[in-house]
Design goal:
alpha+beta; four-stranded antiparallel sheet; 13 strands
């Protein structure tokens, strides 16, 4: 059984990139030189890529004893570790690297700046990890911290070292895959290679400082954003206006500064440093803004404009970053939807889902009262005379539906709300994401109370009656009832209760006191139940019928602002 399964399993493993070797057609991540396949002491016989399975392996290319025989499957780990000089466990490799790295750093009163992603990569590159500390010239410490660390980590897979005050030290830690005979020679080799990289970074830094933002802004006109949507220069001109629009809506203390931030937002894309280290876009723009005399507001916005980068990554920490990030994401989304580049289940090449989630998270984080329909319409208008593939109204409607779906996913997956409650709240209105979230929290709290089900059934009945009206009747049912047509006591009681609660409802709504509003519904429920029990809503008398429907319409219009009770399956 194993002899049949093993070749299938090995051949079926997938890799991002495969290769061929020799004259064969078999593809794999790397050439296969030997296969060890043991069940207890017995060899499991099979062939893959022209190689027969056996019990012989190879260890470390320098420190091992050469060809190694494995007596049994049970002895594999022990033999490979001792005779092969290989640390098989990734957890053990990480432990060796971090413990020895920390020890070396402490000896010079420093600490290693462990980057978890880089640490995972480095441990995977080494079979026999040996950490060492190297030195760099102090002149390179004049480079921004982000530049220095990015150059070390990206190009040479090295870790930075800082002192107890958080200042970078002129050292780095790297991990060898060998115990060298001449450690000083190896150390000098690493220092020489890293120095060349740092010298490149220093050249870009000095060249960029000698270049003005005006020069970069001119260069942006030659950088394509999306072919039908113009250049990056065009995008920054739109962001200039859209950031100002959002800043005013968000009561930002310096909306004019946000205009400047929008215009400068993509300038660093044509800088030498970002050309070398793409991951520093935004960060370098902020650093250069500080060096070139821009305000702290602009610096903060530029640094945080790409946040959040994913569902678990941090949101901007400042309102400046929040405003510019929203503007950038909205501009991209509006452009793509207008060109009918709408994400499908399998493809989202412009990361529009991430953009939508970012806007939702920022709104909730900063408690922003932004009308998404107005916001996206403004972003759409700023494109001017673009030849859209979808009519503007249709594209805007599809975009709002898309964001509503992302909000639903966020509320269910990240905030653990019941999907039925989420649907009910979003159906009542999703343009104001912050208010929708507050209504959802209030409804979730209300749903845990014993009277919830009965309240839902009562108001669902009222909502269903209004929803099922014929089109010709709907035009006459506006919520304006007539006092002289209140024929029964139940009619009068409901009208009196509605007149009593209407100003209270409107005042609580204005103050966003949604929990109190749901409590108010509980207060009116007995009167509504009595109304249904004691009168015939659909009376044969047309005047009575329409007046009673108007009473319910008056009630349902207010209920519908909180949640769609029809969506609550009780």
């Amino acid at each position: 059984i194993l002899a049949e399964l093993c070749p299938v399993i090995i051949s079926g493993l997938s890799f991002p990139k495969n290769m061929r070797w020799g004259s064969g057609s078999f593809t794999y991540a790397r050439p296969i030189h030997w296969l060890v396949a043991l069940l207890d002491e017995k060899i499991v016989p099979f062939t893959v890529a022209g190689i027969d399975s056996g019990r012989h392996s190879q260890g470390h290319r320098v420190h091992s004893c050469g060809r190694i025989e494995i007596p049994s499957a049970q002895e594999y780990f022990n033999v490979i570790t001792k005779e092969g000089a290989i640390t098989l466990s990734s957890a053990e490799r990480v432990k060796r690297i971090t413990e020895e790295g920390d020890r070396l750093a402490r000896a010079m009163n420093g600490r290693i700046l462990w980057n978890s992603d880089l640490l995972t990569e480095v441990q995977g590159l080494s079979e026999h990890p040996v950490p060492i500390i190297g030195d760099i010239q102090r002149k390179y410490l004049e480079l921004p911290r982000e530049v220095l660390l990015t150059s070390m980590e990206t190009h040479q897979k090295c870790f930075g070292v800082e002192d107890n005050d958080g200042n970078l030290l002129p050292h780095f830690l790297t991990v060898l895959n060998i115990d060298p005979k001449h450690m000083s020679t190896v150390k000098q080799g690493w220092e020489r290679v890293l120095t060349a990289r740092l010298e490149d970074a220093r050249f870009f830094w000095e060249t960029d400082l000698a270049t003005s933002f005006d020069d970069w802004l001119k260069a942006l006109d030659d950088v394509i954003f999306l072919a039908p949507l113009g250049s990056m220069g065009n995008k920054t001109r739109r962001l200039e206006k859209l950031a100002h629009f959002i800043a005013c809506k968000a009561n930002h203390p310096k909306p004019e500064e946000m205009k400047r931030a929008g215009r400068l937002s993509k300038a660093d894309l044509v800088s030498g440093m970002v050309g070398e280290f793409a991951s520093l876009q935004g960060i370098m723009g902020s650093i250069y803004a500080g060096k070139k005399g821009e305000s702290g507001w602009v610096k903060a916005a530029l640094r945080e404009q790409y946040m959040p980068a994913g569902p678990e990554t941090p949101c901007p920490s400042t309102i400046c970053g929040a405003v510019l990030s929203m503007a950038d994401k909205a501009d991209t989304m509006v452009g793509c939807f207008g060109l009918n580049m709408i994400p499908t289940g399998a493809a989202d090449p412009y990361a529009l889902r991430r953009c939508a989630l970012g806007i939702i998270r920022i709104i909730l984080e900063f408690k922003l009262r932004i009308d998404l329909a107005e916001f996206f319409a403004e972003a759409q208008d700023l494109y001017g005379e673009i030849q859209w593939k979808l009519p503007a109204d249709e594209a805007l409607q599809k975009l709002l539906e898309f964001v509503s779906l992302r909000a639903k996913n966020y509320f269910v997956s990240h905030k653990n709300h019941d999907v039925v409650l989420v649907d009910a709240v979003l159906a009542a209105g999703a343009e104001d994401i912050w208010a929708a979230n507050e209504r959802l929290e209030a409804l979730a709290e209300f749903s845990r109370k014993p009277q919830f089900e009965q309240a839902v059934l009562t108001f669902k009945r009222a909502s269903n009656i209004i929803r099922k009206l014929a089109p010709e009747d709907s035009e006459r049912i506006t919520g304006a009832y007539r006092a002289e047509l209140l024929a029964e006591q139940a009619d009068k009681d409901l009208a009196a209760k509605l007149e009593e609660i209407a100003p209270r409802f409107d005042a609580l709504w204005k103050e966003d006191k949604f929990a109190e509003l749901f409590e108010l519904l509980q207060e009116i429920r007995p009167v509504v139940d009595a109304f249904f029990d004691q009168v015939m809503v659909m009376s044969d008398d047309r005047n009575l019928r329409e007046n009673r429907l108007n009473l319910l319409k008056f009630l349902v219009d207010r209920l519908g602002a909180l949640a769609d009770f029809n969506a609550l399956n009780i």
